[in-house]
Amino acid sequence: MTITIDKNGRIFFGVEGQFVRDKMVRDMAGKYQVGLTEAQIKEFSLTSTFGSDIRQLGAYLDLSATERQKLTNNGVPCDTANKGENNQLRDWIAFARYANMPNPMRIAIKGDNDANAESIKRVIATLQDQNINKFNLVTGLEAKPDLSLFL
Q1: Residues 56, 140: Cα–Cα separation, whole Å
Q2: pTM across the whole model
Q3: What is the pLDDT of residues 92-148, one digit of tens each?
Q4: How do 108-112 and 136-140 pair as beta strands?
Q5: Mapping DSSP to helix (H, G, I), strand (E, B) and coil, where does residue 144 land?
Q6: Main-chain phi, psi angles of 64, to 5 degrees
Q7: Residues 48, 50, 56, 61, CA torsion sign
Q8: Which residues, other chains included, contact 30 with Cβ-Cβ below 8 Å and sequence gap of 6+?
Q9: How far apart are CA 29 and CA 136, in angstroms?
Q10: Distance CA 20, CA 29 (A)
Q11: How far apart, in whole angstroms, are the C-alpha atoms of residue 20 and residue 42?
Q12: Do 124 and 109 contact (CB within 8 A), yes or no?
């Protein structure tokens, strides 16, 4: 499982395995009552990483690969305030882990020097909310990071 955070604080999510992605998206669509066609589910199962609200996922999947690359996504919602009422990242993580059972998932949080520290904190809080305390933090460092941002 890879959670990527860009410099604008947008969160992108990806897991390996077509079967895992298929089961995960079906579970998410059921929870959020989003109607996805079999063609959209198949397309999602072939997509390694995405960054959109589940409610806009169908429209995103209907676009061609070229159109998707031009699109500016808002990222996966990860609201840790207000009791996490719109923390779709939490649900993607839970359903991905469930779909991959009994095998544990290795989790990586990726960001570069310009990654938004507040977004990284929200992702870590979301993981810890699910009792996930073991993950890799992957950065493209050119300078020593200020670790005080995460404390």
Answers
A1: 30
A2: 0.84
A3: 999 999 999 998 889 999 987 788 788 888 999 999 999 998 998 887 655 555 656
A4: parallel
A5: coil
A6: -75, 165
A7: negative
A8: none
A9: 28
A10: 14
A11: 12
A12: yes
